[in-house]
Amino acid sequence: MESLLYPCINACRKSVCLDGLWKMQFDPSSCGKESGWMNGLPDSFSMPVPGSFADLFTEKEYRDYCGDFWYETKFFLEKQEGKEIYLRFGSVTHRAEVYVNGKYAGAHEGGFTPFVINITDLVTQDARNRIVVKVNNELNETSIPCGATAVLSDGRKIAKPYFDFFNYSGIQRSVYLVFVPKESILDYDTVVTLEGTDARVDYAIQTSGSHEVVTEIFDRKGNKVAENKGKEGALFIENAHLWNLDDPYLYSIVFRIVDGDQDIDKYPARLGIRTIQVQGKKILLNGEEIYLKGYGKHEDFEVIGRTFNYSVAKRDFALMKWSGANCFRTSHYPYAEEWYQMADEEGILIIDEVPAVGMMRSLMNFAAAGAGGKDTRFFMADIVPQLQENHKQAIREMIQRDKNHPSVIAFSIFNEPETTYQEAYDYFKPLFDYARTLDRQNRPLTGALLVNSTPDKCCCHTLCDFISLNRYYGWYIAGGPDLPEAEKAFRREMDAWNTVCENKPLIFTEFGADTSAFEHKLPSVMWSQEYQNEYYEMNFRVMDSYDFVKGELVWNFADFQTTEGIMRVNGNKKGIFTRNRQPKDAAFLLKKRWETKS
Ligand code: BDP
Question: How confident is the model at residue 234 (pLDDT cuts 50, 70, 90)?
Fold first, then answer.
């Protein structure tokens, strides 16, 4: 198996970050390979890695570039004794083919999860080495996320996403050289059970060899609180300090492969002692009921697009906490790993979503299908095998990467797919089954349901441990002067969910109204800040009348970039905060509600 463990540096392993300015070249006619670009780019410009290239250009055709494009960098490799050398990409959107010193090294499909390639036999030690990556950002109906690629009359390709966010692409997350011993730690799992005031931590470690493994847990002061030997076993912590929202206490857990008193490999990680369960209509954190309050987000910011930036993330966590939120969904793809590390530290919960978005065959799919009257059938025999394989891989990589974060409380397997035909159930059932085999913590699984996925028509909600609804009553349905009608229609739908939710919680994963940060109007009109407040007041009134509603994640945390179109004013404006992270009026309404709502 490939190890997706986050890189670290200690006496046994080393990592070198290759971020910086790389070379880049577009390849619109896909001639790079036959022209030997793996040996060096003939006519390149410089490009930041990590980075989303789109908003760095001043020319439209480059911002909207769709097709093949290449990156190149060189690095000096010191002499290494007895180490395996890996190249680790945090993400390359949407697919990559990697060459080292002109030779093919490996490939990866999917733009939001890491991949590693063993390059030990391809590199030259004590010398400079060349990495070349061929990237492609085209969308189709078997790629995750789904979309299409149009060809203009001049031959240029244009991305046609079946989803409502800009198709940012490139080498969007950090690149590392990772040096590990020949026998190394590949992966680990932990599962917490609370036993009174004590905790039992079952663990399993995968290594590439057969030497003894030792696992130790240390508290924050560095005192050892538990130790065990073996690749599987249990550790006991007396009087465990739990990981909670108001006190996200983290132990450290250290795995070592040992040979007598020598460490062959060592991997330190953080451990939060917490449990998560769905019981009847309740979501329980450490056995106590929680109500989820927060946001659907995007990795999206001015200029940097989808690139991770610690300062932007820090500001986002500060705003989430300021507003009284306790949770966000990584709509619509797994985010950079640093988001999860920060959430572990900040005490914010995450619903981790796979990039299965756009599974609806229509152009403005999310709006058109919501308006009804379209044939929304999507899971046709010609696309299912490939789509399912890509989807499965994305689920595997997401769970493998994120399963040990205490902040991750659930996995979302889809966003707004077509669910009203039996084919949808047949498509998703094996994927849910598969996801359940991957998570030893057995976290709840869910998926965000579009407005046409009503309890009577949706074939897939039975797969979910809690129901997640994306609903726009008062925006796409009966907005403005019709708001009272929206409330009635919303209540009718909620009455219908009542029976399904006799023994299952329901949360809202999206609801919101586009709002211009520059519009005020009395009385309100749609797009004004006053209307966003009225919209939320109505929605909260409805949600508060149903006891099976256990969470509200508003859409969206901040305004974000989308494809151009008549539905969007330079992006989606449903943010509670502007794109540069300043509050609209609704932020104060949410703060007031969430500071007391439990
Ligand atoms: C939902 C989608 C989300 C969109 C949102 C909207 O899940 O990606 O941005 O609607 O229309 O359909 O704002």
Answer: very high
pLDDT at 372: 54
CA distance 226 to 243: 17
**Which amino acid is residue 548, in one-letter code?**
F
Q: Apex CA 291: angle with CA 287 and CA 294, to 5°?
A: 130
Of 248, 274, 300, the residue that ends a domain is 274
**pLDDT-based confidence at residue 565 (cuts at 50, 70, 90):** confident
557 and 429 share one domain: yes
The per-residue pLDDT for range 497-549, each reduced to its tens digit, is: 998 888 999 999 999 999 999 999 999 999 999 999 999 999 999 999 999 99
Is the confidence at residue 585, as pLDDT, over 90? yes
Residue 441 CB less than 6 A away from ligand 1: no
Q: Flag whether pLDDT at 250 surpasses 80.
A: yes
Known catalytic membership, residue 416: yes
The Å distance, Cα 296 to ligand 1 centre, comes to 10
Distance 299 CA to ligand 1 centre (A): 15
pLDDT in tens, 167-187: 999 999 999 999 999 999 999
Calculate how far, in angstroms, residue 460's C-alpha sits from the geometric centre of ligand 1.
19
Candidates 72, 97, 138, 416; catalytic one: 416
Contact 586, 529 (CB under 8 A): yes
Distance CA 355, CA 116 (A): 20
Average pLDDT over residues 569-574: 96
Q: Which 3 state secondary structure label does DSSP give 427?
A: helix
Cα 289 from Cα 542, distance rounded (Å): 21
In the listed set 148, 181, 214, which residue is the last one of a domain according to the structure?
181
Instruction: Answer whether residue 106 is part of any domain.
Output: yes
415 Cβ inside 6 Å of ligand 1: yes
Task: Residue count of the chain, please give it.
Answer: 598
Single-letter residue type at 37: W
One-letter amino acid for residue 353 of the chain: E
Does 353 sit in the ligand 1 pocket, CB within 6 Å?
Answer: no
Average pLDDT for the chain: 96
| Bond preceding residue 94 cis, omega within 30 of 0 | yes
Question: Which atom of ligand 1 is the closest one to the Cα of 476?
Answer: 11
Collapsing DSSP states into helix, strand and coil, what is residue 165? Answer: coil
Nearest-angstrom CA–CA distance, 513 and 493: 19
Q: Catalytic: 418?
A: no
Among 403, 305, 290, smallest CA distance to 348 is for 290
The answer to whether residue 6 is domain-embedded is: no
454-466 mean pLDDT: 95
321 and 399 assigned to the same domain: yes
Tokens of 350: 């995450």
What is this structure's pTM?
0.97
